[in-house]
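Input.
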Amino acid sequence: MTDTVELVVNGTLMRGLALNKNLLRVGARFLYETLTAPEYRLWSIDDEYPAMIRVKEGGVSVTVEVWELPVLGLFMVFQQEPPGLCLGMVKLNDGKQALGILGEPYLCEGKKEISAFGGWRAYLESKPLKK
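Output.
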C-alpha cells in the first residue's frame, strides 16, 4: 500500500487559486497540468467554484492539475471542499484515470454552464475585473 495518492483538481484547488493553500498545508506536490478526456461538462457554481461532471455524450476536455499528496491529507483537503463536490475517478486525455474532485449533478441544476471555456481558470480570466 502506498502512502500517497494522485489527485486531479479542476477549480479552486489549482495553483494560485483560493483553496490551493489546503493542498499545500498537507504537503501536496504539484505534478503536472493536463486535460481530461473529452467526456466532461463544467458549471460555475455562483462564480465561487466549478463543478465538473462526466457525461456520456457532448463532453469536452477540461484543463486540470494533478497533485500528489499523503493519503491522510486527502481527507483533510476534501473536508474543506464546498458542499456538493465528491471524489470520483477522472479520465485524463492520455487514458489514465486518477482520483479527482467532481460535482454532484444536483449542484449544477440552474447554474451557468462554462464547458466552452475548457476550464475554471480560463473562465475566470474571461470575466471583467471587479473594481
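The two ends are 50 Å apart (CA to CA).
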